[in-house]
């Protein structure tokens, strides 16, 4: 297959304008250039195509070659015009595409409201959001499938030095039970009561590894029920067992009374830190990605999740 002949946009514009105006001179006037320049552009185009595009006379007319070429010129110029407009809008964040991989525990309570607001304000921006655990989101970042990642922080994997943290989050981890659970009838519970009456106490991995305090309590309870967070939430809501959940994940259940928060005497506050990151440093974010980061920041501020920085 032979390579396509080189053609300049100004040649295609001159060709289209001559067809519209019916003469080289009027086309030159409409384009704001001299007639010799128009003639030179058409001559270069005809040389690239291997034949004449117009029959010359008092009013130029298209040759069969010109007739067959015209619809493709119109299509090419339309596509180019659309591309320029899309690029212009993308530059101000009104078009473009943004991709995010997010921890499943934050995909609903944080990413959901932030993305909903962004879609309402910028409906032309395309979004791709994938949810999973910390390791899965890192794989998405590493493979270039997503531009932004919401991961557990700090990150100690080998390529962590290549990550640029754009937004830091600090989130409480809350012990919850169904309002019908025996522990929910107490305002506070002791660690002994928790380990005896949880039935069971779920081991949930909100960090890269289990929190040491929660490992200790689970071992003291004699239970070894380790299930995904979605499974544990369903079981706790339905009165079976208790568990420590990140607050954002069960905020809606707390607000609607499906779950009750419990305070454990003598247990220090437990937190889970996370961050919105991207690979690479220095290069500016695309405008659409910047909009998403700022929407996440606004939602995190509303939820009280923004980490205090020095």
What does this structure look like?
- This protein is an alpha/beta fold and 310 residues long.
- The chain folds into three domains: 9-91, Arc Repressor Mutant, subunit A (Orthogonal Bundle); 97-167 and 272-303, Periplasmic binding protein-like II (D-Maltodextrin-Binding Protein, domain 2, 3-Layer(aba) Sandwich), CATH 3.40.190; 171-271, D-Maltodextrin-Binding Protein, domain 2.
- It has eleven helices and eleven strands.
- The chain has helices at residues 9-21, 24-31, 35-49, 64-91, 104-121, 134-142, 191-197, 212-221, 229-237, 247-255, 287-303, and strands at 54-55, 61-62, 97-103, 126-132, 148-152, 163-177, 188-189, 201-202, 242-246, 260-264, 271-279.
- Strands 3, 4, 5, 6, 7, 8, 9, 10 and 11 form a nine-stranded mixed β-sheet that branches. It has a two-stranded antiparallel ribbon with strand order 1-2.
- The longest helix is centred in the first third of the chain and has 28 residues, at 64-91.
- The mean pLDDT is 88.
